[in-house]
C-alpha cells in the first residue's frame, strides 16, 4: 500500500499487494513483447484482439534503503477533521486527523493532480476540490469518480507525542496506485467465438466496468469493443484542448490491457444483438457469444439539417481526429460555432487564440441558460465577448454557403450572413442505440436505455451504463434521468460490474461535472433540471461566485467559479443524504460577507 512495513490490524480481512507502477510498467512492456495480438478472420476481415499476457509477479516490499521516515508534526498540531500537506524529503504526503487517528496518503488527486489538502474531509473520506473524486482515508481507495487510480496509503506511528510517517520513495513520487487486479485465466480466451463478458463501448463506463471486474477477482474473458480506432481515452479533454494527440489522451497504456487480459476490439461496430441466443453480430459479419453484456455505446452528435449541410469543413467533435482537424483548419481563419452549450463554448474559447475570428450562434438568449440560468449565462457571455467572441443569439443557421465546395458563409434565419471557413456544430447528441431497435432490449421514446438502480435493463444478464441510459437518481426521489457526464459514466460502469458479479450494488453517486474556458473552471454538482430560482453569493462580474439552484424550498444543484471547495462540500452534504434548504442559503447570503461555509456541515436547519 505504499508503506514499507505494517502491523496488520485485527479487523482488516483483505491484504492488497501492490506492485509499484514504475516496475509494473517495465515488466509489462517486456511481457507484452512475447506475443503479438492475434488476428481472427470474420468474413475475410482481419480482426485484432489484444490478448492477455502473463502478469508480472508482484514485488511489494521495498528494501529499507528505498524507504524514508520522518517526524512530520506534533500530535497536537492537527485538530480532528484537519488535513495538512507534509514534506518527507522525496515528496509530499497528505496527513489527515480524523476521530483522533492519523492517516497519511498521497497528496494529489490521481485524476488531474489537484491538491487534496484543499478538498473536503467528511465521513472517512477526502473529496477532491476540482472534480469531486473521493478517497477512503483508511485505505486510500477510490470511492467515487472521476479517475481510475487510488492513493498510496503510508504508515503512521506516534512516538513521544510526535507523528512519524514512513513511505517508499517510489510511492511518494508516483502519487497514484492502481488497485490489484486479476488476470485472465479463462481457457476460452484463445477461442474467438465466445466471451464471458462483452462490453459494447469503450468510454469511461466500459473501461471502469472491465477494471472493476478484474479488481473484484474476475478471471474469465472480457472483450471491450469500440467504434473508435483508439484504446479508451479522456474524451472531455477533446473540446477543451483540441490539438491534444490521441496518445496523450489515453486513459491506460496498451501494456495495461495486455497485462490484465482485457481484450479491445477497435473500429468494431455492433449491428445486432440477439438476446435469446446471447450473441452479437458485427458489421463485418463476425459473431461473438457472451454470457453477460454491458451496453455503453454513448451518444452520436446531432448534425445540422439546413441547406448546404454537406459542404466541406463543417464538423461535429467526437474523436481526436475531428478535434485535431478543426484546429488545423481554424488557424488564422474565421470560425462559426453553432450551439452555446458546454462543447460549443469550450471549442469557441480554445479557438480564440488560434482563429482570426470566432462567432457563436445560439437559439437561446444567453449561453448555458437552461443549465446555469440567465445571470450566470450572461456573466460567462461577457467573459467571451471580452475575448473577442461575437454572439448571434436567438437565431439559427438557415444555410451553409460554399465556394468551390468549401464553406465560405453561414446564413442565419435573422438573414445575417457570417463569414466562415470552419463551422463546428455543438447542438447536442442522441443516444447511439439504433442497433438495439429490434433486439427486445427496452428503449424509451427518445432512444435511451432505461435501467434500474443496479444498471440492469429489461433483459436478464444485459446491463447498460453511460450517456445512453436513463436511471433512477436516488437523492431526487428516484426520478428517471439521463446524465451524460464523465463522472456518472464511471460510477455506472462500476455498479454494472458489481452486479454482473451478483454484489447487489446500487447507483447512489451525486452528479459532478466541470468545464474550463480561458483558464477558468466552473464546477457543478447536483441535478438542476426544473430549478425555479437561483441564489448567488459573490461577484458575478469578477467570476468569483457560487450559485445555488433551488426548486421550491430545496437546493437541487450548485455551480461555482473561484470558490473552491464549495461544490465538493455541497456534493458531500448531498451524498450524506441531508437536504439543503433554500432558507439556509438565503440566511448565508444575507449575513456572510466572508464566504464562510461552516453552516453547510451543520446538522440541518
From TrEMBL:
Matching CDD domains: Rieske_AIFL_N (cd03478)
One of the record's GO cellular component terms: mitochondrial inner membrane
Entry-linked InterPro entries: FAD-oxidoreductase/Apoptosis (IPR050446), FAD/NAD-bd_sf (IPR036188), FAD/NAD-binding_dom (IPR023753), FAD/NAD-linked_Rdtase_dimer_sf (IPR016156), Reductase_C (IPR028202), Rieske_2Fe-2S (IPR017941), Rieske_2Fe-2S_sf (IPR036922)
Residue stretches in coiled coil: none
Localization terms from the record: Mitochondrion
UniProt keyword annotation of Metal-binding present: yes
Keywords, in A-Z order: 2Fe-2S, Apoptosis, Electron transport, FAD, Flavoprotein, Iron, Iron-sulfur, Metal-binding, Mitochondrion, Oxidoreductase, Transport
Gene Ontology molecular functions: 2 iron, 2 sulfur cluster binding; metal ion binding; oxidoreductase activity, acting on NAD(P)H
Classification via SUPFAM superfamilies: FAD/NAD(P)-binding domain, FAD/NAD-linked reductases, dimerisation (C-terminal) domain, ISP domain
Region (Disordered): 22-45
Domain of life: Eukaryota
One GO term (biological process): execution phase of apoptosis
Domain Rieske: 70-165
Family, as annotated: Belongs to the FAD-dependent oxidoreductase family.
Function: Induces apoptosis through a caspase dependent pathway. Reduces mitochondrial membrane potential.
Name listed for the protein in its UniProt record: Apoptosis-inducing factor 3
UniProt organism field: Saimiri boliviensis boliviensis (Bolivian squirrel monkey)
Gene that encodes the chain: AIFM3
Amino acid at each position: 500500500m505504499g508503506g514499507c512495513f505494517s502491523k496488520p490490524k485485527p479487523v482488516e480481512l483483505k491484504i492488497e499487494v501492490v506492485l509499484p507502477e514504475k516496475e509494473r510498467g517495465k515488466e509489462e512492456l517486456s511481457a507484452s513483447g512475447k506475443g503479438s495480438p492475434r488476428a481472427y478472420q470474420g468474413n475475410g476481415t482481419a480482426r485484432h484482439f489484444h490478448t492477455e499476457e502473463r502478469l508480472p509477479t508482484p514485488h511489494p516490499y521495498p528494501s529499507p534503503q528505498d524507504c524514508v521516515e520522518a517526524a512530520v508534526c506534533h500530535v497536537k498540531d492537527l485538530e480532528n477533521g484537519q488535513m495538512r500537506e507534509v514534506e518527507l524529503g522525496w515528496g509530499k504526503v497528505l496527513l489527515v486527523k480524523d476521530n483522533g487517528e492519523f492517516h497519511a496518503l498521497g497528496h494529489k488527486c490521481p485524476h488531474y493532480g489537484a491538491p487534496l489538502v484543499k478538498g473536503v474531509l467528511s465521513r472517512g473520506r477526502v473529496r477532491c476540490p476540482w472534480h469531486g473524486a473521493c478517497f477512503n482515508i483508511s485505505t486510500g481507495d477510490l470511492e467515487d469518480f472521476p479517475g481510475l487510480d487510488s492513493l498510496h496509503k503510508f504508515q503512521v506511528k506516534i512516538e513521544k507525542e510526535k507523528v512519524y510517517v514512513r513511505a517508499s520513495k517510489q510511492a511518494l513520487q508516483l502519487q497514484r496506485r492502481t488497485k490489484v487486479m486479476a488476470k485472465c485465466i479463462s481457457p476460452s480466451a484463445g477461442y474467438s467465438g465466445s466471451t464471458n463478458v462483452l462490453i459494447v463501448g469503450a468510454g469511461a463506463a466500459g473501461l471502469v466496468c472491465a477494471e472493476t471486474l478484474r479488481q473484484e477477482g474476475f478471471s474469465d474473458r472480457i472483450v471491450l469493443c469500440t467504434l473508435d480506432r483508439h484504446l479508451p481515452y479522456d474524451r472531455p479533454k477533446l473540446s477543451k484542448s483540441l490539438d491534444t494527440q490521441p496518445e496523450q489522451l489515453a486513459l491506460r497504456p496498451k501494456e495495461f490491457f495486455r497485462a490484465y487480459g482485457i481484450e479491445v476490439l477497435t473500429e468494431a461496430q455492433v449491428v445486432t444483438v440477439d438476446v435469446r441466443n446471447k450473441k452479437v453480430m458485427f458489421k463485418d459479419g463476425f459473431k461473438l457469444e457472451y454470457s453477460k453484456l454491458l451496453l455503453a455505446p454513448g451518444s452520436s452528435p446531432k448534425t445540422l439539417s439546413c441547406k448546404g449541410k454537406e459542404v466541406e469543413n463543417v464538423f461535429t467533435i467526437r474523436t481526436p481526429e475531428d478535434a485535431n482537424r478543426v484546429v488545423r483548419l481554424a488557424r488564422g481563419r474565421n470560425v462559426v460555432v453553432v450551439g452555446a452549450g458546454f462543447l460549443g463554448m469550450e471549442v469557441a474559447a480554445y479557438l480564440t487564440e488560434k482563429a482570426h475570428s470566432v462567432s457563436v450562434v445560439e437559439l437561446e438568449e444567453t449561453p448555458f441558460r437552461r443549465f446555469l440560468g440567465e445571470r450566470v449565462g450572461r456573466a460567462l457571455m461577457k467573459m467571451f465577448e471580452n475575448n473577442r467572441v461575437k454572439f448571434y443569439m436567438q437565431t439559427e443557421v438557415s444555410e451553409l454557403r460554399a465556394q468551390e465546395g468549401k464553406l465560405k458563409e453561414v446564413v442565419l434565419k435573422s438573414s445575417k450572413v457570417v463569414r466562415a471557413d470552419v463551422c463546428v456544430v455543438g447542438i447536442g447528441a442522441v443516444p447511439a442505440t439504433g442497433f438495439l431497435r429490434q433486439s427486445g432490449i427496452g428503449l424509451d421514446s427518445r432512444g435511451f436505455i432505461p435501467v434500474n438502480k443496479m444498471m440492469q435493463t429489461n433483459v436478464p444478464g444485459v446491463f447498460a451504463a453511460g450517456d445512453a441510459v436513463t436511471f433512477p437518481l436516488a437523492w431526487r426521489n428516484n426520478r428517471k434521468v439521463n446524465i451524460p457526464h464523465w463522472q456518472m459514466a464511471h460510477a455506472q460502469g462500476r455498479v454494472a460490474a458489481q452486479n454482473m458479479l451478483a454484489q447487489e450494488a446500487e447507483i447512489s453517486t451525486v452528479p459532478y461535472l466541470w468545464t474550463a474556458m480561458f483558464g477558468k473552471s466552473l464546477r457543478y454538482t447536483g441535478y438542476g433540471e426544473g430549478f425555479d430560482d437561483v441564489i448567488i453569493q459573490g461577484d458575478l462580474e469578477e467570476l468569483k461566485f457560487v450559485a445555488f439552484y433551488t426548486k421550491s424550498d430545496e437546493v437541487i444543484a450548485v455551480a461555482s467559479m473561484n470558490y473552491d471547495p464549495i461544490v465538493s462540500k455541497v456534493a458531500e452534504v448531498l451524498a450524506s443524504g441531508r437536504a439543503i434548504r433554500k432558507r439556509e442559503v438565503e440566511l448565508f447570503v444575507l449575513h456572510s460577507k466572508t464566504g464562510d461555509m461552516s453552516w453547510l456541515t451543520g446538522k440541518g436547519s
